[in-house]
Amino acid sequence: MVVTIISVGVVAASFISTPNNVVADGGTAATTSEVVTEPVEYPVDIPGCDDVQEPPTESESMLFSSSIGGGESTYDNPAFPWMTSGRAAVMSEAVRAALPSDVDIVLAAPSQSLSFGPVEDIDVPGFDPVSNATAELMRDGSAAFVSLGVGPSDKGAPPCVAGSLDSRDTDSDGTVVDINDTWYEIAGTRTYSRSATAYRQDGTRVSVHLSAPSSPTLPLEQDEIAAIAALPELGVSTPLPSEPPVLRRDCSVYSSDEGTVRDINPEALDAANAAFTASWASLRGAPALDRPVGSLIPAGFGSGICTDVAVLGSSIRLAVSVVGNQPLPTAPDPYDPSFYGQLPETRTLPDGSVIQYFDADVTNMLTSEDGTGLLSRSVTVTRPSGVQVSARSSVEVGANGKAPLTLPEPLPVGILDVVAATPIGQWP
Hints:
The chain is mainly β. Helices cover 11% and strands 32% of the residues. It has helices at 85-98, 222-229, 266-281, 413-420, and strands spanning 2-6, 9-15, 22-23, 35-37, 40-41, 52-53, 63-69, 72-73, 104-105, 120-121, 131-139, 142-152, 160-161, 167-170, 176-186, 189-199, 204-213, 297-298, 305-310, 317-323, 345-348, 354-358, 366-367, 373-382, 388-397. The strands form six sheets. Strands 4, 9, 11, 12, 14, 15, 16 and 17 form an eight-stranded antiparallel β-sheet that branches. Strands 18, 19, 20, 21, 22, 23, 24 and 25 form an eight-stranded antiparallel β-sheet that branches. A three-stranded antiparallel β-sheet has the order 1-2-7, with no helix packed on it. The chain starts with a strand and ends in an 8-residue tail after the last helix.
């Protein structure tokens, strides 16, 4: 069973061979009108298994794909105390560090770059709670989609069943790891897959699944995928460091950009982050951040990049974004009845760039249902080349039933000016 978070739902896919595909002595698979699965040999010896059970009968076999969605997904959910944002960050970094040095994660937003997501809070019988991480991996020209699932389970390692695993290994700490290579065809298109499932003594179940169409050459070998499944950092009871790393989270850029993340050049992204780091270093008395300002990542959609960092010891945040192919803005007409909202201060620089300021204004403050307000100011620079850099700072205004005598302040305009003026070349 492979469980993968896709967008708003949990997609569960299980491929179990039917009796028509059970063969002996290396026979060929039987063909259905739409689906062909790898033939299963029985009886068969499986390394690491003292006893191998027969494949399921026709009444027990199944081939299905279903979606379940609508559950709430938040980190630090009391319903799943084992899954905190700190644990997600530790697990994510452990998996990325365990990849061989010549394996690349295809550039994407964090949610598609092996960052473990929150557990989806759904009440479905038979489904264990699980945190998922996905990515596309590349190695020597071969690509595959990888998905990981981590969560507690009281089921333990299942019996060895022909067709469900190629080998079983038991580590010195009692962790059982099952490896399986297989394939299936749908309407004549073959997909190859490699999976490793680890069953830890503390009740953790870890699944790692690779899949790729057409080619049986996958970016991770069997021993490499097994080593990832058995990582101690993936245990739900593994102690966390006193100061876990900051979890990378998705961010968004709202623009008319029609590009995709595939248009982003990794070298250009590195250069942009270096430029923002240099801009921040040029500031005198700049506050400490929870991670570098030069930590922009691809946005969830389009070809923009962004980051959202926190000022340590406060509720102040700083959001920075870069997007291309933007028209030069014009100052809105304050007497235009169709215009609604705060008027920006707009001016044109000598090189033709247009800079817009939105200053903190309590009359335009966003307020949540509990009365907490969000006060913000921003500086946006749009260059004639279409490159647009925005720096926006916000701060929470607490809801205590009375108006504060002094409103908290976002980062000052001077800091935002320097960040927004960071020289970024043609983008993407």
